[in-house]
Design brief:
The chain is α/β, with parallel strands linked by helices. Helices cover about 55% and strands about 15% of the residues. A 5-stranded parallel β-sheet has the order 9-8-7-10-11, sandwiched between helices. A 3-stranded antiparallel β-sheet has the order 1-2-5, with no helix packed on it. The longest helix has about 35 residues. The radius of gyration is 25 Å and the shape is elongated.
């Protein structure tokens, strides 16, 4: 009973992380406002506003870096998918902030010199600090244009990814631009220390999280393919072994970004969740052949070196707030669900597994064995939606799981299915803190 009450009263980790993130943002906003009030006056009112906007653009840039640095504390509580969405919207906010700043600077100096904006723009382009700012702004505009959904859908992921890496160049150039703008960066000893500390924190987090930790982890663990096991005609499991796997901080439900450089091109990377709970002896991924990367997995030779980034994701038992759990999977989305079943500490679990027919149910025998061992319940939901099978309508869910509002609910499956389930859960009245769904994707 004490454990049950503790689960009910505890503040969910995702809420804790969001509070911490918002507190960080608000504290730095207050500091930036104070710095502006004490030393933000420009040569005229327009340039004063331009400085105000520019200070906030710098803060947005650093926040952007933190969102994609893959900080473990944030990633394990919020999830890479949500952090990526926030990164996207922060990026478009940054775009308009920078364009506003640049426009106000040109307008301010044009007013000051009683010159046209075109003439002022060309004059400012001859000033190193201003030219760097223009280069950073132009780069960010290019990145934003390629990030529009209508444009991105037409680009290969590898092409888009290379273009998106230019954001780091743009932020680096903007950093030098700020260094040369001594009125904002060196207005006081406190301002100097504050900006340097914040930039070092942002760049340091990115370098450590995206470069140093993956390189060290792969050198330390020496990941290699141990076995490849076909699960069906179009699904295969890859077992990966290595050194000191018991020290790898991975949990059931998380995913890695996998590369097989000896078998495919280095730039081909895929996010696959673990299909078995990590046990210190091996890691397992199970994937369906839907793209060039996943389709070639069954042909990966044993002994192939593996380069892995991760573990990532908040789709873990860390998110639990209730003693009872409902696990909902669709198709190959059963993989993290199956891993979570191994980690179960209580028998109060229900699994809804949605497939077209039983032959499509990947890892079904393993799921059945785990549920039988824990005393849970499995509902295999078959049939086609176009033929009238709608097991995720609110009434259907209530019928299958009468106490659904008292459970933590984990959902993993195709986007359409996941969206349908989430809509039904909202209609039923399941609190958001009890619903856990994550898109396993690259950031």
């Amino acid at each position: 009973m004490a454990t049950s009450l503790q689960c009910r009263r505890a503040v969910p980790p995702v809420v804790q992380a969001r509070w911490a993130l918002w507190a960080f943002v608000l504290v730095n906003l207050v500091i930036v406002e104070v710095l502006f009030i004490t030393s933000g006056t420009g040569k005229n009112s327009i340039l004063t506003v331009a400085k105000f906007v520019g200070l906030h653009a710098a803060l947005l840039m650093m926040f952007q870096l933190l969102l994609v640095a893959r900080l473990p504390w944030l990633d394990r509580r919020i999830g890479m998918d949500r952090l990526t969405v926030w990164h996207r919207w922060t990026g478009f906010t940054l775009l308009w902030t920078i364009l506003t700043h640049a426009t106000l600077v040109v307008l301010g100096y044009a007013t000051l010199d009683n010159a046209s904006m075109a003439k002022t723009f060309l004059a400012l382009a001859g000033v190193p600090a201003s030219l760097l700012g223009m280069i950073a702004a132009a780069t960010i505009v290019t990145i934003a244009a390629t990030s529009l959904r209508s444009v991105r859908r037409r680009l290969q992921y590898e092409t888009w990814h290379v273009l998106h890496l230019l954001v780091y160049l743009a932020i680096s150039v903007a950093f030098v631009h700020q260094l040369l703008e001594t009125t904002t960066f060196k207005s006081s000893t406190f301002a100097f220390v504050y900006w340097w500390t914040l930039w070092i924190l942002a760049f340091g987090s990115l370098v450590v999280g995206r470069i140093a930790v993956p390189l060290w982890r792969n050198a330390y663990h020496q990941f290699r393919v141990q076995a490849v096991v076909p699960e069906s005609d179009n699904v295969a499991s890859v077992y990966v072994t290595g050194q000191h796997l018991d020290r790898l901080p991975a949990r059931a439900g998380q995913f890695f970004i996998w590369r097989f450089p000896g078998h495919s091109h280095w730039w081909l990377a895929n996010p696959f969740s673990l299909s078995a709970a990590p046990d210190g002896r091996f890691l397992r991924l199970t994937a369906k052949a839907v793209g060039s990367g996943s389709a070639g997995l069954r042909n990966v030779p044993v002994g192939t070196r593996v380069f892995m980034e991760g573990p990532y994701g908040a789709f873990t038992s860390l998110q639990r707030t209730r003693p009872g759990t409902l696990l909902i999977a669709g198709g190959v989305g059963i993989t993290p669900i199956r891993a979570l079943l191994e980690e179960r500490s209580t028998a109060d679990v229900v699994v809804l597994y949605r497939v077209r027919d039983e032959s499509d149910a990947v890892l079904l025998n393993e799921v059945r064995q785990l549920i039988q061992a824990h005393g849970g319940r499995l509902h295999l939901l078959t049939g086609r939606t176009k033929d009238g099978a709608r097991p995720f309508e609110p009434d259907s869910l209530r019928s299958l799981v009468p106490d659904i509002t008292e459970r933590d609910i984990y959902v993993c499956g195709p986007p359409a299915m996941t969206s349908s389930v989430l809509r039904s859960l909202r209609a039923i009245g399941v609190p958001n803190t009890q619903v856990h769904a994550e898109k396993f994707s690259m950031a």
